[in-house]
Write a structure and sequence with these properties.
Elements: E1 2-7, H1 10-18, E2 27-30, E3 37-40, H2 42-46, H3 59-64, E4 68-71, H4 74-89, E5 94-99, E6 102-106, H5 111-114, H6 117-132, E7 136-141, H7 144-156, E8 163-165, H8 169-177, H9 189-197, H10 203-207, H11 211-217, H12 221-230, E9 251-261, H13 264-284, E10 288-297, E11 309-320, H14 323-337, E12 344-355, H15 358-365, H16 369-387, H17 395-398
Parallel strand pairs: 2-4, 7-8
Antiparallel strand pairs: 1-6, 1-7, 2-3, 5-6, 9-12, 10-11, 10-12
This protein binds a DNA duplex (18 and 18 nucleotides) through helix 9, strand 9 and strand 12.
Length: 429
DNA sequence: TCTGGGGTCCTAGGACCC
DNA sequence: TCTGGGGTCCTAGGACCC
């Protein structure tokens, strides 16, 4: 039996945990540059504010109803997520951290010790709330896809008290019939449109599909597995997370600039900063990358025809996690992409092709130099951990401007980093 | 004026190999 | 004119997720 624990309106809930005055009011959290809505309180949803909507389009609504719009505070959310996941890890033999606000638990064999699983789930739910002030819903079912579906039903139907267990054919069928097909995990916009045109409008209808239909219309083997999972046959295993942190297969750092940029030095500053950040994340999970991609984007909402993005990739001669090396190659790729006279709005650096033990290969080429580089990188990470991200940087990051980097955007509505920054600790009193 | 960021998996086609 | 079969690796692109 799988359990899916999902935090309700996670970013808004994190903000409320430290600012109880936000309780009961319409609140939204904004994306980078205060651009789009990425989390909404129930009250904000009730006002008809859609997920992903740009703030400027709903400005009248926000002002009319006094909606609190907050900049995103990822230091806070990451820390709160760690607390929730740490507790969940203690409540089940295996835990998969699926995203910042969701986790799958394996509850195999747990009923024997803890009695009915829905009762156990209610305990977990109230304890998460007591410890962190974060509300959750929990879906329990024999497959991951059904656990997601149970979770969604529990969210929509307050009479269920935040927990739904699908442990019989009758209950499963009951749940399948009340979920629209577009809300099934793995059915996005394209597939939903296709299914509706075929007359399939509910999860129950999808569960009745033949394997051939699923394969033909829903992306081959992916669709076949989806339908099997709805029928109650597990196709997806739990992928336990090592001490709550995920080892990624790719690492990206991408940003829309605070304003459009046309100077090479300005964009280089951004790309070098992104490469540095990506290298830090890479070292934190102990990987070395063999593939480096840089992309540059122009305004995709303008009149210019697509493509709005161009990218360039290089296979590194030696896998590495060395910031200086990665910045050097990123600069070369940027040079290949750069078109003078073009105005860019966004850039990104992506690291791929990981292998373990990259450091060994590095030292093969530079028997003592490799170790020296490793020590330097460790020191760099330690300093940045102590004094804050970006305290110590390679020169290219600084670009032509000694002051604020021109690619950095606005975060005018950010709340303090209550839990992670010495200067912004929560004040009691 | 203002439109996020970071991931996953799968498929198809070409190059290349024996 | 005839001119195999099977495998791997790489890349691009599509669809989905939170």
């Amino acid at each position: 039996m799988f359990a899916l624990v999902d935090c309700n309106n996670f970013y808004v809930s994190c903000e409320r945990a430290f600012q109880p005055s936000l309780e009961g009011k319409p609140v939204v959290v904004l994306s980078n540059n205060d651009g789009c809505i990425v989390s909404r309180s129930a009250e904000a949803k009730a006002l008809g504010i859609p997920m992903g909507e740009p703030l400027f389009k709903i400005r009248p609504l926000v002002e009319q109803h006094g909606v609190q719009a907050l900049s995103s505070n990822y230091a806070l959310y990451g820390d709160m997520s760690g607390r929730v996941m740490g507790y969940l890890a203690s409540m089940a033999p295996e835990l998969e951290v699926y995203s910042i606000d969701e986790a799958f638990l394996s509850l195999h064999g747990m009923a024997r010790w803890h009695g009915p699983l829905d009762t156990y789930a209610r305990q977990i739910r109230s304890e998460v709330r007591r410890r962190t002030h974060i509300p959750t819903c929990i879906g329990l079912a024999p497959t991951k896809t059904l656990a997601k579906l149970a979770n969604r039903v529990a969210k929509k139907d307050p009479s269920l008290g935040g927990v739904l267990l699908l442990d019989s054919n009758e209950r499963r069928q009951w749940a399948l019939e009340r979920v629209p097909v577009e809300d099934v995990w793995g059915i996005g916009r394209q597939y939903a449109t296709k299914l509706h045109s075929m007359g399939i409008t509910t999860a129950a209808g999808l569960a009745r599909c033949s394997e051939a239909i699923a394969r033909k219309h829903l992306g081959g083997v992916v669709g076949a597995r989806l339908v099997r999972e709805l029928q109650g046959y597990p196709c997806h295993q739990l992928n336990p997370s090592e001490d709550g942190s995920l080892a990624r297969q790719s690492i990206a750092c991408t940003r829309t600039f605070g304003r459009p940029l046309a100077q090479f030095e300005d964009v280089l500053g951004a790309v070098a900063a992104f490469a540095s950040r990506a290298a830090e994340k890479l070292r934190r999970q102990g990987s070395a990358a063999s593939l480096l991609t840089v992309f540059l984007s122009q305004n995709r909402f303008g009149n210019a025809p697509p493509p709005h993005t161009r990218s360039a990739q290089v296979t590194l001669p030696v896998s590495t996690s060395n910031t200086t090396e990665l910045v050097r190659f990123a600069r070369a790729l940027l040079g290949r992409l750069w078109q003078p006279g073009t105005v860019y709005t966004k850039a990104g650096v992506i690291l791929d092709g990981f292998e373990q033990g990259g450091q060994e290969q590095l030292s093969l080429f530079a028997p003592d130099g490799g170790e020296r580089v490793e020590r330097l990188m460790r020191k760099l990470d330690a300093l940045n951990a102590r004094y804050g991200i970006g305290s110590v940087q390679v020169a290219a990051v600084l670009g032509a401007h000694p002051g604020k980097a021109p690619w950095k955007g606005q975060q005018q509505r950010r709340t303090p980093a209550y839990t992670t920054c010495w200067d912004e600790l929560w004040q009691v009193g």
